[in-house]
């Protein structure tokens, strides 16, 4: 089998916005196959440091191989980025110069049927980024109560057909457990009539993936930590791939640009909250037409950037 590949999204734009200089300390929270990290390493030079988080062991191995010549400058952290602050302080660091999040899936996740993220190739319903974790998509599909399953599909897939889909899943699993991506995709396809070009299972698959990996919850937690880990003028760059993630990023940025978070009824400020950020992207940066055509994964990408005051 050929070596897995991933084309980094918004590469030049993200690297430019990190404002990299020789000797800086940068955190890549989503190393993947190391595409963004490699460019960061070129810019920060021999005296620069990179701390790279990746919770997927297979991607971590591939990235280590790719970045071998920079190994002295890199600290790899095989952890969820929700533990950003504690991991950084374990390394004896206080603040850093820049942080990058390039969220979600890498190409090998989609291309390798055994990872169970995609219904394009048949594989086990897995969907875990981190195989040390116990919960899989198969367990969610076969064990979750109908109402909870509908809520997951509605909230994380934004699918208005969530109730019908959940009902059909529960009916089908009474006959026999749903074990593969194709079984689930076919079941949904036979349930939902749709004129959209999207496969009717797309949103359910997104929902299950987000739920299994607690993607929105960990993003929220990590953003607070990231903002507080930046040195003055340090940059935070976030590339997201669906509206649920982008909404969290936008809201968090807005929160930290306030001068006061007291309830409106209070006549005088008592919170002592201080604005921590400048937002550098009033509107998100999106891929150029060329990038979107040559790299389909980039099509839904949105990049937001802020700078620590
Ligand atoms: C879009 S890919 C990053 C690709 C990378 N920028 C590159 O150029 O190769 C996202 C990566 O982040 C990892 N990831 C996703 N959520 C994570 C989390 N909460 N903690 C650590 N790694 C995570 C995924 O396993 C995946 O490898």
Structure summary:
By secondary structure, this protein is an alpha/beta fold.
What attributes does this structure have?
13% strand, 309 residues, seven-stranded mixed β-sheet, DNA polymerase, domain 1, single chain, 2 domains, Rossmann fold, binds S-adenosylmethionine, globular, alpha/beta
Structural features, described:
The protein is of the alpha/beta class and 309 residues long. The protein contains 13 helices and 7 strands. Strands 3-2-1-4-5-7-6 form a 7-stranded mixed sheet, sandwiched between helices. S-adenosylmethionine binds next to α2.
List the helices and strands and how they pair.
Elements: H1 11-17, E1 25-28, H2 35-44, E2 49-53, H3 57-66, E3 74-77, H4 84-90, E4 96-102, H5 107-111, H6 137-143, H7 146-157, H8 162-175, H9 181-191, H10 202-212, H11 215-229, E5 230-240, H12 243-255, E6 277-279, H13 289-294, E7 302-308
Parallel strand pairs: 1-2, 1-4, 2-3, 4-5
Antiparallel strand pairs: 5-7, 6-7
Helix pairs in contact: 7-8, 7-10, 8-9, 11-12
